[in-house]
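Progress against Task 2.4 (sequence-to-structure conversion) is shown through the following example record, which the project officer requested during the mid-term review.
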Amino acid sequence: MLRGMYGAAAGMIAQQQRQEMLTNNLANANTPGFKADQASLRSFPNMLIKAMNTQGQRGPAPTIGELTTGVYLQERMPNFRQGDLMETSFNTDVALLQSMMPETESGRPGALFYTMQNENGEIRYSRNGNLTVDGQGFLTSAVGHYVLDTAGQPVQVGNEEFRVNPQGVIFTQDGAQVAQLNVVYAEDPMQLVKEGDGLLRFEGEGELPTAIGNGAIAYQLQQGFLERSNVDAQATMTEMMNAYRSFEANQRVLQAYDQSLEKAVNEVGRIG
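Structure tokens generated for the chain above:
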């Protein structure tokens, strides 16, 4: 009976974690460049139950059968599918649109990212093209992280009157070339970990290679546009309702076990 309680409790924990993941996705449905997390429920390894200490039994203990040990939420993984584009007409909004990617050994498509620098001076990556210009004229993310060029340096545009061509080259209002935004390629985006504020940390060795000059990769930057979040709000709401109902079902099973244990202690024990 206690094993049944553990299984029901494991199901409740898994559904609660799934609900938290879906809630975070829904909360970022309007965050530019946000990539929805996805995960699946998997069962723990089954246990093989055998009868032990059987009187007069010769040979190996007879097998009773398998016992399931509950479920857990598998590792959360972002879905790096391209989001829809939204026109804003702001110079500081630059969408990264990828159109051709090389085949990978894993079969999963790679992904492109901007290169940014966090407050500790470390290299991070992002798909959020909602940029701004700080008081010193540097191009930054909406929360103040520097956007880097192909030389790994912060991009200084002076003011918001700049132009970005499809290759990411930045020009001032009078046509002078300032820098080129660095776009990098991740062959296996699953090696990137979310850190918050739209930043991703690379868990592999070194840094991600630049996509500039790679003939197998085709992309363009569109100024005055933003890449929307790829969260499907309707599908997410449906999944949240399913997770809630599954949580309730496991809760009722747990309550049934609790009532049975209470009866066994208070009634069966008194009869004995």
